[in-house]
Amino acid sequence: MNAILLLLGGVGFQEILLIGLFVLVFFGARKIPEFMKGLGKGVREFKDAVSDVKKEVEDAGRIEERK
Description:
Blueprint: H1 2-8, H2 13-27, H3 32-66
């Protein structure tokens, strides 16, 4: 969550509200749940990939320590 806050920087409530209204107008109320579902799946896949990379790096470090 902290990484998301750092990425957004100085985006305040008004900017987020404006983006939300733009999305509502542009996509329509029926498409927003589908969009958010896809976004959630993408974030989940990204987290899984990061976790896999961390695990591989840790495993490689353990192998190097044994040598």
